[in-house]
Design goal:
With 348 residues, this protein is of the alpha/beta class. The protein contains 11 helices and 15 strands. Helices cover 35% and strands 23% of the residues. The chain starts with a strand and ends in a 5-residue tail after the last helix.
Length: 348
């Protein structure tokens, strides 16, 4: 019998990936889902064999008393949604990225986490892909390339779309190091289609300084260089690491290779959303249950997600100031709005 009861809020397209993996997790059970749209929640309930479906979030929480809550909604009400789950006794709350769009969102989540006995976990499930979870890529970056001096990290999605995944993996590869300074430039802001929920500059290019002298060119833009041969912007996630003894080339969906001094041929390895996405989400979710049972800290715990958002907000601060800024730096909601007004794309 499953130990931990789980509920899900939001039966949109992303939610299916959250629920589908429960069939392979013995210690957790998805007991109920919630969505305002009747047709959508009933279709979702029947397709995935979930016992109950609700049209009211707080009613579901009170009735089901879940240990785990998945919040798979647009990133605009995270503080309220998380606090409602925490008040209902949830121990773990899984939120989709971005965990925060404006600074007050992040501050609100900090308050919720410090006020209740719960952990807020960001669904950056790529950390649980085999080559990332077992330390293969981190070992290459840290131990095989010599002294790191340059990295290019690129995503063909905006700063709140693919940017959180890009920064999350970068910090993982750098053993959770956080940047010490940033200089950034940005242009164009609008709130059409996808951008209405993932509000951020359409184009931002940042240079981060990490400990040890590593400089990272961090590119989140619909015009980023991306990964050759990819068509969907979701797959354009790409790293190049240069060190004094070698190079690592890593993509999200087209594998990786590295080569160091003395190697006649590069070593190739798998990196594939198509074949690793389901397993990554499954292991990410199972690790929540393991943590609840006294196991290791979750790789996507709140402190990790908070550092990611802080680094992205630091780039906003630099754009607004027009210079390099030391990190961590505080960005206010007023500064956020000032920046977006300044770079807003002209109508027409």
């Amino acid at each position: 019998m499953a130990k931990h009861r789980a509920c899900l809020l939001g039966c949109g397209p992303r939610a299916k990936e959250h629920v589908a993996v429960y069939g392979e997790i013995d210690t957790m059970q998805m007991v109920a889902v919630c969505d305002l749209v009747e047709e959508r929640r009933k279709d979702f309930q029947h397709r995935f064999g979930v016992e109950k479906a609700y049209d009211d979030y707080e009613t579901m929480l009170a009735a089901e008393k879940p240990d785990v809550v998945h919040i798979v909604t647009q990133p605009s009400r995270r503080e309220w949604e998380c606090e409602a789950a925490a008040k209902a006794g949830a121990r773990a709350i899984i939120v989709e990225k971005p965990m925060a769009v404006v600074p007050s969102d992040l501050e609100g989540l900090r308050r919720v986490r410090s006020s209740y006995d719960c952990e807020i976990i960001v669904n950056c499930q790529r950390r649980y892909f085999p080559q990332f979870r077992d330390g293969t890529i981190t070992d290459i970056v840290q131990n095989k390339l010599g002294d790191l001096y340059l990295c290019r990290a690129s995503a063909m999605g905006n700063c709140m779309g693919m940017g959180p995944h890009l920064m999350d993996l970068l910090m993982l590869f750098l053993a959770e190091a956080q940047p010490e300074a940033v200089w950034a430039t940005a242009y164009d802001y609008h709130e059409e289609s996808y951008f209405a929920a993932h509000r951020a500059p359409e184009h931002i290019l940042s240079e981060y300084w990490f400990p040890g002298g590593l400089r990272v060119f961090f590119d989140c833009s619909t015009e980023a260089l991306g990964t050759p041969g990819e068509e969907s912007f979701w797959m354009h996630l790409h790293f190049d690491f240069l060190g004094s003894r070698g190079r690592l080339y890593l993509t999200q969906n087209k594998g990786y290779w590295y080569q160091t001094e003395g190697m006649a041929e590069p070593v190739h390895g798998e990196s594939s959303w198509d074949t690793q996405g389901f397993g990554g989400q499954r292991d990410f979710t199972a690790a929540v249950g393991e943590w609840l049972d006294g196991g290791p800290e979750h790789l996507n715990r709140f402190a990790v997600g908070e550092a990611v958002v802080q680094a992205l907000f630091g780039a906003y601060k630099s754009v607004l100031a027009g210079r390099r800024v030391d990190l961590p730096a505080t960005l206010t909601d007023d500064e956020w709005h000032t920046l977006m007004t300044r770079i807003r794309k002209p109508e027409g």
